[in-house]
Every structure is written in C-alpha cells, then in structure tokens.
Design goal:
CATH class of the largest domain: Alpha Beta
Strand content: 25-35%
Shape: elongated
Bound molecules: L-homoserine
Helix content: 25-40%
CATH architecture of the largest domain: 2-Layer Sandwich
Largest sheet: 10 strands, mixed
Number of strands: 18
CATH topology of the largest domain: Dihydrodipicolinate Reductase, domain 2
Distance between the termini: 48 Å
Number of domains: 3
Radius of gyration: 24 Å
Length: 428
C-alpha cells in the first residue's frame, strides 16, 4: 500500500513531517505495511530545506505544481494562518487530493466551509494535529467515543500557557522569562498573543465543541480569557488553598444548551489535570457510557505534532480505496450559553486600602447580589498603613456569574479599591 504525499510548508511542523517521512520511511513500512512516500514540497524559504536530503523529492515555491501533480494522493497544509492556507486547501480538494492539516485557526474560523467542500469533492479533510498535538483526541471523539453522548470536555490544550503557568507555579519564574523560553522551544505561536490571550485555546475549543455536539460552534460565541492577568500572588494564594491555575478549554452540555469557554481556572491539586505540567496537554472527557477518560501527551513542538500528521496519513492510506469519511457531521443547532448564566464557584482577589469597614462594605455588596462567601483571607503586609494596598481573597460558594460580575462592578467603584478585582473561576 502506498500513499504519495505533498507537503506545503517546512517550518516547525512541516519540517518535522519532512524529517519523519524521509527518515522513518522504512520503519513505517515495516510496522504498518504502508509506504508513505514524500514526493513534493512547496516552500518559499529555500533555506528551510537545506537540512534534508531531497534528491528524490520535487521542491518548488509554487503551489500549482503540487496541486496539478496527478501522482499526489494527499496534500499536507502546514503553513498555518488563514490565507493562503485556505485557498491551498480548497484547491487541493478540488484537484482531487485528500488534505491533512494542523491549522486550528483556519478550522475554527472556516472549518464548516472547508468540510462542505471536502464532502462535495468526495475527499477527506483530516486534522488530528490541530488539537493537542500528538494526543489522538480527534480520532477518539470521531471513532472511539462516537457511540456515546459526550457530557463535558476539560482540556489543557495550549502548551505555551501550560508551560508558563507551570514554571510560575513550581519555579517562581516570571511570565516574560518563561514566555521567551516557550518561544525558543518552538511551542509558541507567532505572535504569542494567540497563546497567552487564549485565542489558540479557543480555536481548539471550537473544534472540540463542534465535534462533540454535531454542530458548527461560532468562534465568537466562545467566551475567551487568557493568562496575562495571572500574577505570582494568584499562583501562590491558589497553592495555599490547594489549587493550581490552568488555562482550560471547557465544553459542556447544560440544560439542552452548550457551554464553550476558555479561561484560567483553579484546579484542585488532587484533580488529574493538576498534574499536567509544562508543555504537556491533557483532555479530560466525561461521557454517558464510558464515564471519565483522560488523554495526555505533548501538545506542541515539532515531532509530537508531526507524529499526529503522520497518523492521519496512515489512516488515509488504510482507507485509500474506501469512500471518504465525513470530516464532521452537522445534525444539531443548539444555543451557546452566555457566560453570565454560568453557575460556578469563584476566586476573587481584591486589592484594597486597609481601613476600618472595608471588608464589611465588600461583603455587603456581595451579599446584596446573592453571592455567598465560602472563605475570606486578608494577607498581612510587613508594614501597615491604612493607605497601603492589601490583598483580600474571597472564595465564593456556587453563584451566578452575572451576579458576581454586577457585584464586582459595584465594588470596584468603592474609594478603598485600588485596582480592578481579579476573578478566577474554580473547576467544578
Ligand atoms: N502554540 C500552540 C501551543 C502550539 O502552545 O500549544 C500547538 O498548537
């Protein structure tokens, strides 16, 4: 069995795919009986191709040569971003090629349109590498768990953010130093705002939610909050109370509606997700008949992601003579719940002046909005002065998010409050 492969892009992931196709060719054939033959690479930066022996591979800087090569069975789009990636994928499908992509942003924004084209052209569009790198979560949701109702998914799906939060937590390093390391290791997006502002996680959340609930989830309906506001103080107060902070993608079915949200979350230290550190990803899935299952592995980096691309190539080779599998089924149109309707527990960090009555005023406003306090700690400072800011940490019982937000709007107007109150949701 043979599959002739064209690759567009020889950057971090593309380079990994090229390396594996060239160097693991014999091993893959022995293990699987499949010959994955690298036939063609399109890359405009010829320097990126220098490390490889490409004597048996056509290289060009022009997509048309690849698309029009009748021998190519499958095109791997590994340049990322929206354009020209979107046009290349459409052209490849319309030219009768299967497509494998790792492009989460493109899928999150235009996945529905691309899936329709794949269906019309009777070709497969595969995207295992787009979510959580080497973790086979797409295959798991589309095949292994496709016979059961998915109740919820909680995922650590951005390696850069998990790396930053882990090193802040366990090594006390500061945000900027760790971000630079993540960039040097090839985990971070360009620009890294896509990671740290939560958008990359939202793209993956969109793909997971769409797969789980059989409907295209509009990206702009997903609530997104990144990790840029997380401070050393939050990390350390969370630790004292028995939590670690993780950026989670959460999708859940609640009262016939869909919750899809991305935000930093206090995860109890004894939860399985709390032990997922550094660039590792994990996806925790709860389903009706299988109960909880956990999937763990490297979610970023050259070879873990390239391995996921190769797994799609292998699946395509096995299915070469079969009718194409649909990339995604659309059979539902459920409402995406507003974040204001969330019933959750909250960590609130107030930064306030330290004079008589401050705590009373804060608590009165929370009570007026039906937000019940579960614990309250004021952090002592070394030197005391009424005008010096102190941190007050309040944990709430389960409350309605819109009520908590209304209370905070009122509290933040008090003259004792020094900076906007910081809210972090607790994993439930
Ligand atoms: N920037 C992404 C991450 C790469 O850090 O997880 C993998 O999608």
């Amino acid at each position: 069995m043979k599959l002739k492969v064209g690759v567009i892009g020889a950057g971090t992931v593309g380079g990994g795919v090229i390396h594996l196709l060239l160097n693991h060719h014999g091993y893959i054939k022995n293990q699987t009986g499949v010959e994955l033959e690298l036939k063609h690479i399109v890359e405009i930066k010829s320097d990126l191709l220098k490390p490889y022996d490409l004597s048996n591979v056509t290289t060009s800087s022009d997509i048309e040569t690849l698309i029009n090569d009748p021998e190519i069975d499958v095109v791997c789009e590994l340049i990322g971003g929206i354009e020209p990636a979107k046009t290349f994928i459409i052209k490849a499908l319309q030219a009768g090629k299967h497509v494998v992509t790792a492009n989460k942003m493109l899928l999150a924004k235009y996945g529905d349109e691309l899936c329709k084209i794949a269906k019309e052209t009777k070709k497969e569009l595969r995207y295992e590498a787009s979510v959580a790198g080497v973790i086979p979560i797409i295959k798991t949701l589309k095949e292994v768990l496709s016979t059961t109702h998915i109740e919820s998914i909680c995922g650590i799906v951005n390696g850069t953010c998990n790396y930053i939060l882990s090193r802040m937590t366990y090594e006390g390093l500061d945000f900027d130093t760790v971000l630079k390391e993540a960039q040097a290791n090839g985990y971070a997006e360009t620009p890294p705002d896509l990671d740290i502002e939560g958008y990359d996680t939202a793209h993956k959340c969109q793909i997971l939610a769409s797969l789980c609930f059989g409907m295209p989830v509009p990206l702009d309906k997903i609530y997104v909050e990144g990790i840029t506001e997380i401070t050393h103080s939050d990390v350390s107060y969370a630790n004292e109370m028995g939590y670690v902070i993780k950026l989670l993608a959460i999708v859940r079915k609640v009262e016939g509606e869909i919750e899809a949200r991305v935000h930093p979350t206090l995860v109890p230290q004894n939860h399985l997700l709390a032990s997922v550190r550094n660039e590792f990803n994990a996806v925790y899935v709860e389903s009706e008949t299988a109960g909880p299952t956990l999937y763990y592995g490297k979610g970023a980096g050259r070879f873990p992601t390239a391995t996921a691309v190769l797994s799609d190539l292998l699946s395509l080779a096995y299915r070469k003579e079969s009718p194409p599998l649909p990339p995604f089924n659309h059979y539902h149109d459920l409402n995406i719940r507003d974040i204001g309707l969330l019933q959750n527990r909250y960590y609130l960090r107030f930064t306030t002046k330290d004079y008589p009555g401050v705590l009373g005023r804060i608590c009165t406003i929370l009570g007026k909005h039906q937000v019940s306090i579960s614990s309250c700690h004021q952090k002592e400072t070394l030197s005391y002065h009424q005008a010096l800011p102190v941190h007050v940490i309040i944990m709430t019982h389960e409350s309605l998010e819109s009520s908590v937000q209304s209370a905070l709007t009122e509290i933040d107007k008090l003259d004792c409050i020094v900076e906007p109150t910081h809210l972090i949701r607790v994993l439930q």
